[in-house]
Amino acid sequence: ETGVTQSPTHLIKTRGQQVTLRCSSQSGHNTVSWYQQALGQGPQFIFQYYREEENGRGNFPPRFSGLQFPNYSSELNVNALELDDSALYLCASSSGGVNTEAFFGQGTRLTVV
Amino acid sequence: AQRVTQPEKLLSVFKGAPVELKCNYSYSGSPELFWYVQYSRQRLQLLLRHISRESIKGFTADLNKGETSFHLKKPFAQEEDSAMYYCALNPDYGGATNKLIFGTGTLLAVQP
Fold first, then answer.
1. Is the bond leading into A62 cis (omega within 30 degrees of zero)?
2. Cβ of B111: how many Cβ atoms within 10 Å?
3. ∠B22-B49-B64 over CA atoms, to 5°?
4. Do B105 and A100 touch (CB under 8 A)?
């Protein structure tokens, strides 16, 4: 059984550009959530995907969007990057049932310059 | 508003001393609360959840609805407990536990 993997591990982008971050969920998991963790802060919920449909969204603007694929892997897309988007982006997968544990990836460190 | 507050950024104790990491929450419904831990160079992982009432690595946490608290306790700290600890709330109680509201975290440093 493989864990949650994210790519890339680090990324530097210029303000105004677009970025795509990827997440492979743990085997058997059909639910993926994305979190943004700014320096010195706890993770903040961006959105969740369940069986390829968005299933809940946090307080993030529409330029944050996502996809989930039939194999339950997921992408986070951010358009029109701003300096404040610099953060660690975490992906977490779970089996989607009641009271199941969320397993986190190691994160992608995004720096916007 | 739903919120999780961890008032201490850093808690430093000596090995063998008791530990209490504070967590208070603001939530209008019945909360589901968790403690997550991140050891150095490792990913975030679940430590314990209030519904399971387990003791993991000697840590316990009791939900106090009157005080809206979920403090994490351990009677005797070990050096390997040094890590970042996050308290988290699930506003989707009974649903998928993957829409968590996290506190800002407390760094526990256990001195030899």
1. no
2. 11
3. 50
4. no
User: Is pLDDT of A106 > 90?
Assistant: yes
Burial class from Cβ neighbours inside 10 Å (0-12, 13-18, 19+) for residue A36 reads buried
Q: Measured between CA atoms, how close is A54 to chain B, in angstroms?
A: 12
> Residue B56, exposed/middle/buried by CB under 10 A (0-12, 13-18, 19+)?
middle
- Residues of A at the B interface (Cβ-Cβ below 8 Å)? 4, 31-33, 35, 40-45, 48, 50, 55-56, 58, 90, 92-94, 96-107
CB hemisphere CA count around B99 (13 angstroms) = 21
Residue B32 has pLDDT above 90, yes or no: no
- Does position B1 have pLDDT exceeding 90, yes or no? no
| CB of B40 less than 8 A from some CB of A | no
Provide the pLDDT for residue B10.
Answer: 97
Q: Which segment of A24-33, B31-40, B47-56, B84-93 scores lowest on mean pLDDT?
A: B47-56
pLDDT at B27: 87
